[in-house]
Amino acid sequence: MTNDNGKMNREEAGRKGGETTAKNHDKEFYQEIGQKGGEATSDNHDKEFYQEIGQKGGEATSDNHDKEFYQEIGQKGGEATSDNHDKEFYQEIGQKGGEATSDNHDKEFYQEIGQKGGEARANQRDGGSSDGPNDGKMSREEAGRKGGEKSRR
């Protein structure tokens, strides 16, 4: 592409320059300049900048991918994580998650999930019906409800 006076336009000059650079440099060169560029960007921008571009990127990704895409990358990430960590890692993050949940929720939250869990287990045990056999034992649903009530006190 040339303009009216026979000179290359910016697009053509950029393309040719990029091709020449690619021929003259290897992967290591690009990693190095990428590292320098990342450091310069980090020096010039604050946390809000990264939050904003992260949100924009997340929105663009979600516009371009379906549920199966996220299931697939989630599974791959989970497998990679399990390959790289041991039981203690999972115990530690489980404890941190439990503490964070505890900090963010009140007694009513735990009562509600306890009741829902009890009902779900009772339905599983009774084959989908919450009216199972009465063998003198308390159902899980009842135990969940009573446990929720007890934690209120």
Outline the structure in words.
With 153 residues, the protein is an all-alpha fold. Helix content is 78%, strand content 0%. The model has no long low-confidence stretch (mean pLDDT 87).
Overall helicity: over 70%
Number of strand elements? 0
Average pLDDT rating: 87
Q: Percent of residues in beta strands? A: under 5%
* Head-to-tail CA distance between termini: 80 Å
Extract low-pLDDT stretches.
none
Summarize the structure.
The protein is an all-alpha fold.
Write the layout of secondary structure elements.
Blueprint: H1 10-24, H2 27-44, H3 47-64, H4 67-84, H5 87-104, H6 107-125, H7 140-152
Quick tags:
single chain; 153 residues; mainly alpha; 78% helix; 0% strand
